[in-house]
Amino acid sequence: MTPLFALLLPLLLLPLVSAQVPHWGPCPEPAVQPAFSMKKFMGRWFEIAKLPAQFEKGKCIETNFSMKADQTIRVVSSEILKGELRTIEGTGVTEDLKNPAKLGISYSYVLPYSPYWILSTDYENSALIYSCTDVLRLFHMDFAWILGRTRTLPAATVDKAREIFTSSNIDVSRMVASRQQGCD
Ligand SMILES: *[C@@H]1O[C@H](CO)[C@@H](O)[C@H](O)[C@H]1NC(C)=O
User: Fold this and answer.
1) What is the full per-residue pLDDT of the chain (184 aa) written as tens digits?
2) Which of 97, 103, 126, 143 could form a disulfide with 116 if both were Cys (CB 3.0 to 4.6 A apart)?
3) Residue ranges lining ligand 1, Cβ < 6 Å
4) CA quadruple 105, 123, 132, 97: dihedral positive or negative?
5) Which of 83, 35, 41 shows the shortest CA–CA distance to 64?
């Protein structure tokens, strides 16, 4: 296998292996962050919790967003897996100028852009991200993340984030905390 393919393979398989229970019906349509500022969102975010649970995944997951000269977004994600730092770079775009909080991110020119919606953020502490893909409008597969500017967030902030997802008809009952210990 070429190294590039080896890197992409888990990403290609990820939606299949983690969608153990598909949700019936089309994607929910949650509200997103009003007056979203891309500029304030840039920089380093740590993964605090994610949906769905993925076992055998790395720890210390973080993503660094930065603006490129062509107005697209450089997305660099990293994790520590089996003691090794692994990095992957993608490109983010605003797919709809009327909805700047609805980004699309692709990790390879051969892969389509996946939705990456910022449902809510205060830019300085936490951000709630949602990604949902319809499958024939019969069912949908979704991913959700709570991100933090620090490796851990107060329990109250995490509880509030889960409430926001739930009130947007997103089932986060299987959301799990990400491992951010022993990273630095
Ligand atoms: C994030 O990316 C920017 C632009 O590439 C870089 O200058 C900065 O050092 C990066 N920050 C971290 C924490 O990796």
Assistant:
1) 445 544 454 455 445 444 455 788 899 999 999 999 999 999 999 999 999 866 557 899 999 999 999 989 999 999 999 999 999 999 999 988 899 999 999 988 788 899 999 999 999 999 999 999 888 878 888 999 999 999 999 999 999 999 999 999 999 998 999 999 999 8
2) 103
3) 44, 64, 66, 74
4) negative
5) 41
Q: Which atom of ligand 1 sits closest to the CA of residue 44?
A: 13
pTM, two decimal places: 0.86
Report CA dihedral (60, 184, 39, 171) to the nearest 10 degrees. Answer: 30
- The one-letter amino acid at 48: I
Which residue from 62, 64, 65, 74 has its CB within 8 A of the most atoms of ligand 1, so it is best to mutate?
64
Residue closest via CA to ligand 1's atom 6 equals: 66
Check whether domain 24-174 has CATH 2.40.128.20, yes or no: yes
- Residues in CB range of 3: below 8 A, 6 or more apart: none
Distance 73 CA to ligand 1 centre (A): 12
Ligand 1 nearest atom to the CA of residue 43, by list position:
1
Q: Where are the domains of the chain?
A: 24-174
